[in-house]
């Protein structure tokens, strides 16, 4: 099936998983454990994982699924995949535990090591961002659906950048990466995918992530920001790669709304 034939089905799957997360969140009682990599996982993560994986396997039994909660698949097996689903059942587990509401469900379709379709569903607002390669990026709410575009700044612009940052991270760890940090206006929000979508819809100019993330955190966000007119790159301004290494951990990365800006000069570098 083509991505445009799959997208509505995937949005339904993401919504069902998100509704389950929302139910657990509002009940306020969930199990919390710590994984081997010292990151938290909750019963909401597992419940969403089970809904998404079973539904995707029913929808496309021929396409393998790589989920954060079942990622121990060696590269020797993954490298044989021409196309696969890349899933983060609950992006922003820390925000879920803290009660901020800033978390999402992420599902991407990756083909030949590049995301070609992505869905980011936000359970607490029931907003859905999605994109298909070559067909644009969109934001769907309960009231409407509209195509989204990142904010394109003039190349010679010297005004402040609106920089999306995590409320759970010291902003100085991000600001030190910029040559003129005083020109950065901070937009605080939780969840990696949500901050990427903020750039995609033009409400922030860039988002820099410093610290560990997995490929499932960026797959859907990458195709959404690209189709909105921006880019997602590592801090050396090189595109992220997918399913090409044994490790599924991303490098530090930056999401930019205006690729035409001289980001090599805006960023401080080493």
UniProtKB/TrEMBL annotation:
Residues the entry annotates as binding Mg(2+) 2: 88, 90-91, 217
Record keywords: Cell inner membrane, Cell membrane, Hydrolase, Magnesium, Membrane, Metal-binding
Chain sites annotated for binding Mg(2+) 1: 68, 88, 90-91, 217
Cofactor(s) named in the record: Mg(2+)
Class of this enzyme: hydrolase
InterPro entries with a match to the protein in the record: CysQ, CysQ/Inositol_MonoPase, Inositol_monophosphatase-like
Membrane topology: Peripheral membrane protein
One Gene Ontology term of the molecular function aspect: 3'(2'),5'-bisphosphate nucleotidase activity
Pfam families the record matches: Inositol_P (PF00459)
Catalysed transformations (reactions): adenosine 3',5'-bisphosphate + H2O = AMP + phosphate
Any single biological process term in GO: 3'-phosphoadenosine 5'-phosphosulfate metabolic process
Gene3D superfamilies membership: 3.40.190.80, Fructose-1,6-Bisphosphatase, subunit A, domain 1
Annotated positions binding substrate: 68, 90-93, 217
Superkingdom classification of source: Bacteria
Entry's EC annotation: 3.1.3.7
GO annotations of cellular component type: plasma membrane
Localization of this protein: Cell inner membrane
Function of the protein: Converts adenosine-3',5'-bisphosphate (PAP) to AMP.
Family according to the record: Belongs to the inositol monophosphatase superfamily. CysQ family.
Protein name: 3'(2'),5'-bisphosphate nucleotidase CysQ
Primary gene name: cysQ_1
